[in-house]
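Protocol step 4 of 5: obtain the predicted structure for the target chain.
Materials: sequence only (see below). No template structures provided, no constraints applied. The aim of this step is simply to have a reference model before the mutagenesis design in step 5. Sequence pasted as it appears in the construct record:
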Amino acid sequence: MKAVRLTAIGSLLAETEIKLPLIGPRDVLIRVKAAGICHSDAHYRAGVSHVPNLPLTLGHEVAGVVEKTGGDVRHFATGDRVCLHYLVTCGECDFCRAGNEQFCARAEMIGKHRDGGYAEFIAVPERSVFHLPEEIPFEPGAILMCSSATSLHALKKARLHPGETVAIFGVGGLGISAIQLAKHLQAGKVFAVDINPRKLELAKRFEAIPVDASAGDPGAQIQEMTNGRGVDVALELVGLPVTMRQAVQSLAILGRAVLVGLTPETFEVAPYRELLNKEAEIVGVSDHLASELPILLELARTGKLDLAQGIIRTVSLEARAINDALDRLEGFGDDVRAVIVP
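Step 4 output (structure tokens):
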């Protein structure tokens, strides 16, 4: 089968032919219909986030159709429309039993620790497979599995209460979902911070208040727009030290800065002025939970989470197109989400 793979850190992805994945008795073989291109994939290619074994097929946002099932699979059949939870876990350890499977010591992330969806087929255990409702196209179904799921998990970690104000730093795939999910969770004002005019305009279409970071310090702008109060929750989705610091600086008393974006760098905080004096918090977010995926699928099925309004650009399963999409992500370009359609 055809796959587009990472063969060396810092190098472009390459097209190759590999064997069709083998499946065990509890596994499902899926014909990929859509695979999202995530900013994390750009981090893997660049070496910002460590990939343990190469060569590797990237792609952890996957939707498709069941091609074949193992003999012990009970809940899926050939032809079923499905989407994938990107963590393959043991299901038995303390973290898995507690519903915090992202910390499972034996966890493997598809597209990072095992082959992912930049290919014609992918094989995963049945417990990582979810039915994709007919109302949800494959392309949104794929990106629900990461950007939307991580945004929901971040808002839950933020302990967002109805009426609280939210600032979202970065209006990419996560940011567009985060705006809508914050509204669904009955947030008050939602501020959307970016430097890209197209993305700020898209945020306005989802009833967020745009904050143009190219016009000045967004933390200061938010403080001014809230009459010096700040926001209750700031989601940092970019992965830059400067935006992490700005998120902290935008907080109100008892505010929570929730960090999602990946960076190997550090950032400075003024402990007394920015945290202690406000009893503010910095909260880390790692991935999301399988238990959150049915919530998202229902929101998308009923049209309460919209991933169609100029959000998705489709590309072919070709190395040049995928590398170009990754380059755009690294440059924080106009694309909100690019999705591979084999």
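Step 4 remarks: The mean pLDDT is 93. The longest strand covers residues 27-37.
Proceed to step 5.
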